[in-house]
Task: structure prediction
Amino acid sequence: MKRKTPLSRVSRRTLKIVHRPKTESLLGYWIAEVWYDGDARPVGYNEDPYQAQGDVPDELYEDVCSMMNAFDSEPLSLDYVDYLITRKQETGN
Result:
């Protein structure tokens, strides 16, 4: 996870298509885990590309479906998420 956030402040985890348009634009896009607080603000993420997995084929299928759901929303800029997290830490809001 890129940012350390107390688990009590994490409301949900979702898979998102992410990118870094300003700092690492040559990397392109990938799917990553993003954690949100109760106000739907990002509080952390895993910068490594997400890998589907499961103990049985059905679990793997569900994980792949979760990855496909990432295409239902706009790609998320991790540069912007870093800005939001830093601002929240500085202001305490």
